């Protein structure tokens, strides 16, 4: 079963847009292979845009976090909320239909209000000046864990309503 067997690409795109606009996250729907498929591009802050403009940033930060967290979500069957190596929070909700893992929906790119962006890690991963990373990190919006949990509940309800 594919994500597009459940909803059209446009409907998944609408979900990504809603998560981005209502929750302020970089939003994505991923298929079972961990690949995005809607074509919707969104950044909630300029630091994420900078990280993703460097293949080594995607590989060292984004892909590692997604692989780890999506595997946790897949095996537990539950939403995972954790920080990536850059210190930004990521929410991964598994799409499991009749026991079959179909994909992940979620978002990333905010910092928990009791945490901070790991600027040195980002600096080392993408090899740009630390001062530039620090300036970009100042534009990452904080949120509470409660708000991240509310996003998780929204995504879980969305997935539940598909089935």
Describe the structure in your own words.
Strands 1, 2, 3, 4 and 5 form a five-stranded mixed beta sheet that branches. α5 (about 120-125) crosses α6. The model has no long low-confidence stretch (mean pLDDT about 95). The longest helix has 22 residues, at about 55-75. Helix content is about 50%, strand content about 20%. The protein has helices spanning about 5, 10-25, 45-50, 55-75, 120-125, 130-135, 145-160; strands at about 25-30, 80-85, 90-95, 100-110, 140-145. It is globular and about 50 Å long. It has about 160 residues and is an alpha+beta fold.
Major pleated sheet: 5 strands, mixed
The residue-averaged pLDDT reads: 95
- Helix tally? 7
Classification by helices and strands: alpha+beta
Low-confidence stretches: none
User: Which band does the percent of strand residues land in?
Assistant: 15-25%
Radius of gyration: 15 Å
Give helix % range: 40-55%
- Alpha-carbon distance between the two ends: 13 Å
Helix/strand order, N-terminal first? HHEHHEEEHHEH
Tell me the total number of β-strands.
5
Shape category: globular
